[in-house]
Amino acid sequence: MAPPVASRGQVWQRWGVDSELELEIVTIRSHDDEGLLDEFHSTVYWEAFPDQQEPVAIWKRALWGGTASYELTVRIAGRALRDRAQRQILGGIAFERYPQSSCGLVTYMAIAPAARRQGLGKRLQRDAASTMFAAGVHAVFGEVNDPRLVGLGVDEPVENMWRRLERNQAWGARVVGTRYVQPALAPGLSRDHGLCLIALASDQPLPGTMPGRLVRAFVEDLYAATEGSTPDAELVAEIPEHVALLELRR
Q1: 39, 144, 157, 178: which one has the fewest Cβ atoms less than 10 Å from its Cβ?
Q2: Model confidence over 155-172: pLDDT tens digits?
Q3: What is the DSSP code string of 207-237?
Q4: CA 54 → CA 51, 112, 187, 210, 230, distances in Å?
């Protein structure tokens, strides 16, 4: 069963976001939304992820190709989103549900500068996690640059890394206490060794640990979906039986 999605035309008003924005959220469902998807990918998303862009063709294949081993949802927030001449895209989020491991992953969240620090990111992430937990997943993960791994090819000031991690932790997320390597997202891209895996919270706080078998199953699912292969044996072997969920501090 596909995860539940927000209805089209849902308007957000006075929920931590400046009420003057009167944001609309659109869940990408059909080819009628393809132009909106293309515009989000080439603007707000592209600017937020200059080093590791996932080609929009992969999103389209997952949404409409019927061959992906996971279920992709993309939601876009802004104003006048149905009017190409007037619309203003202010943010969006992409997340995946993996039926094999019963885990979810928030793959990308991008907020335009005009809408930052107004609660939009928190709302998008919380709604995505709630959608996946309601669909029956056992855990929802995310990825952020790891401030402990400066120098591993990440071209970002360490202060920005800490701020992003601390923001996610303030929203209830915790760092999954095991080494993580993001698989290559498309042919020609390389694996990313500079990320940490985080667990996202639902309405309830996260426990102090997570079963290692759940983390292993998710990592294996992710590698199968992206690279069509299994992760390196040593990476899986390093995942302990009980993985600590950590709140990191500088």
Answers
A1: 157
A2: 788 999 999 999 999 999
A3: -SEEEHHHHHHHHHHHHHHHTSSPPPHHHHH
A4: 10, 18, 10, 29, 20
